[in-house]
UniProtKB/TrEMBL annotation:
Residues 7-237 form the NAD-dependent epimerase/dehydratase domain. This is NAD(P)-binding protein. PANTHER family: BIFUNCTIONAL POLYMYXIN RESISTANCE PROTEIN ARNA, LD23561P. Pfam families: Epimerase. SUPFAM superfamilies: NAD(P)-binding Rossmann-fold domains (SSF51735).
């Protein structure tokens, strides 16, 4: 065990954090793991297979955005320092006030980043988002134009830039698309819940904008494998071979995105097949109207769906609904492409995707996971 790295996961009960912990646990990749989260495992909708990897002695409850928590988070009984720190923490909900992202995302990142630098951590992996790129249907590479289009992305980009200035921080940045997989509660979950309601209402599910709008994806299984691969590459000498001039940044940055070029059209096809419903796209007229009146359009959609969803849960006898909802976030309904090029990770780190594109089978797997948890009506 001595030569295996010790690992600290901040935000380790979040969607990506818990799967990273499970991946490390199942493959016995680490000598020691600590999971830090402000939420207790009992309150985190944790499926049973995560118990051993995320709870018990491995778990420390702490708010990493507060400086006074740092000793509890980082100190180890043997006085040694962690080899890898993965920052999976931060605010993941959309449409919050700026102050919330500043405190829970930006400050959290800088807090743990400074501490990791002070303690000589071998690799600090910061999770960021592909929403930092300027919207473009052509896939963005890591050094392409930046123009964040969600609030999460605005503050994630600030975190990236500020972390890069910290002296002595062994930083790698990973930018993610829409991450989906079993137990997912965002993006794909919203679409599936909406589809479930449209099926019950026996009506067509129509998307705004066009079928070509890019909504790139990565499966959670590949995301956590990629995070581990990046840390291993970095600590194994990658940072010394990194050519800042050729790569366009002093800090190694990697897009993690599958090879399926997921678009709204791809999702509409899959959802149509899975649910046996008609799917389509609103015409130019409605999309133009929506662009000018996005708030009221989102409110209308939510008003239309939330009641029937509650009825479906009641009919199914689901009294303790999980994290699923058809509630549509305005920020995710923008006419913006999430379009990323993931070739650098493959070329530089030698990573290969095991789930290279989203499929009917993989989406059905997501729904099966909801059924196991009794979240699905």
């Amino acid at each position: 065990m001595a030569e295996k790295p010790s690992v600290l996961i901040i935000g380790g009960l979040g969607y990506i954090g818990r799967f990273l912990a499970l991946h490390i646990h199942q493959n016995k990749l680490a000598s020691e793991v600590r999971i830090v989260d402000k939420v207790l495992p009992q309150l985190a909708w944790l499926p049973p297979e995560f118990e051993e990897a995320c709870a018990g002695p491995k778990f420390v409850q702490a708010d990493a955005s507060r400086e006074q928590s740092l000793p509890r988070i980082f100190d180890r009984a043997d006085g040694k320092q962690w080899d890898y720190v993965f920052n999976c923490g931060g605010e993941t909900r959309y449409s919050q006030e700026d102050e919330v992202y500043k405190l829970r995302s930006l400050n959290l990142s800088l807090n743990v980043g400074r501490e990791a630098a002070k303690r000589g951590v071998k690799c600090f992996v910061e999770l960021s988002t592909g929403m930092v790129y300027k919207s473009d249907s052509a896939p963005s590479k890591e050094n392409d134009k930046l123009k964040p289009w969600s609030k999460i992305a605005v503050f994630k980009l600030q975190a990236e830039e500020e972390l890069a200035k910290i002296d002595g921080l062994n930083l790698a940045i990973v930018r993610l698309p829409h991450v989906y997989g079993p137990y997912a509660s965002q993006w794909v979950a919203t679409a599936l819940c909406m589809a479930r309601v449209y099926k019950a209402l026996e009506s067509e599910m129509k998307w705004l904008w066009t079928k070509d709008l890019r909504t790139n994806t990565a499966h959670i299984h590949d995301v956590v494998r990629a995070l581990w691969a990046v840390a291993g590459w970095y600590a194994g000498g990658g940072k010394d071979t990194w050519d800042a001039k050729a790569m366009g940044s002093a800090v190694p940055i990697f897009n993690v995105v599958d090879k399926g070029v997921t678009t709204q059209g791809v999702m509409a096809d899959i959802i149509g097949q899975v649910f046996g419903i008609e799917t389509g796209f609103q015409g130019q007229l409605i999309s133009t109207f929506a662009k000018l009146n996005l708030d009221s359009v989102v409110d209308d959609v939510n008003d239309e769906l939330l009641g029937p969803w509650a009825d479906l849960l009641a009919e199914a006898g689901i009294t303790r609904p999980g994290p699923l909802t058809p509630f549509m976030e305005r920020e995710l309904l923008k006419d913006t492409d999430l379009s990323m090029d993931g070739s650098r990770l493959e070329e530089v780190v030698g990573f290969t995707y095991e789930k290279p594109k989203i499929s009917k089978e993989l989406v059905e797997e997501v729904i099966e996971s909801y059924k196991r948890m009794n979240w699905w009506p």
